Amino acid sequence: MTKIDKSKPVLVTGANGYVASWLVKKLLDEGITVHAAVRNPKDDKKISHLKAAAANSKGKIKFFAGDLLKPGSYKEAMEGCELVYHTASPFTMDVKDPQKELIAPAVNGTANVLNTANEVSSVLRVVVTSSCAAIYTDAIDTVNAPGGTITEEIWNTTASLDYQPYSYSKTLAEKKAWEIEKSQSQWDLVTINMSLVLGPPLNPAHATSESMNILKMIGGGELKMGAPKMGLGVVDVRDVADAHYMAGYTPKAKGRYITSAHDTDLLEMSEVLLPKYGDKYPLPKRAMPKWLLMLVGPMANKLFTRKYIKNNVNIPFHADNSKIKRDLGIKFLPLKQTMEDSFQVMIDEGIFKAK
Fold it and tell me: What is the E.C. number (predicted)?
């Protein structure tokens, strides 16, 4: 049981990221002082939305420079904090050198932040933004899990440097976090294991998350002939921010938390948008057959390898989210609201043009 003092500052690494921005807003709205660690505190385009959130809240924000690959670069920002949120990590599927672009920053960055926590005596709890990708690689893994559903007990054993290196990076980074946690007794560790995060970004002009690419596929016409029924989990970015907040300030919070609201697929995600947007935008209305994807998928998108298609298309995804509901009291937003709010931002930003 770890009770965090709300009068003390809180460190958020990667504070201007998609999830972190909503977390920072939540902390500020609760009247908390946020130590926001970002790559470049002088880049106003990337932090002005956080300054605006602070100006409209009871809390205060202080910016610090932090570099995942520079040991000790988070120490100044961490001083005096009882609670540390480590959210900074690369999220991209399209990489040339997975070891350099994904594995090293994810694993070494986690070690950097947690080793610094060992040196700063005020730290009592670290919340690490992990992923369901540390639990599974493909939808078939959830089918093959005990009871046909992934739980917090399960670790990803099917990703590698050559296959789904992003999932591999999240697995190695979270394992590194638990290894460092076990080597000390000063602070406890909680991880938030999110599925695909959607919902409106607070800084849409600079939203670079993989989530945006999936929305572009759905609404940009790429899938207008049909969407693959690719099994995956979806959760709203606002719920993920609440999950992080509760993980930090709930004394009994412990271990890993699957943070996934809906067991769904690409076609269902498109279908919930049809009533509101189907007349104006080239949304898919039917399933793309698996055999057709096997033929054209690898040519259309290098991530759609035959192995990937075989393991994910027409295969349901199932995740057990009962622990986070029970321990942290999280109630998830409906899929329709998440999809509509996400889609509307893309329209407002001029990314989607009406047909």
Answer: 1.1.1.219
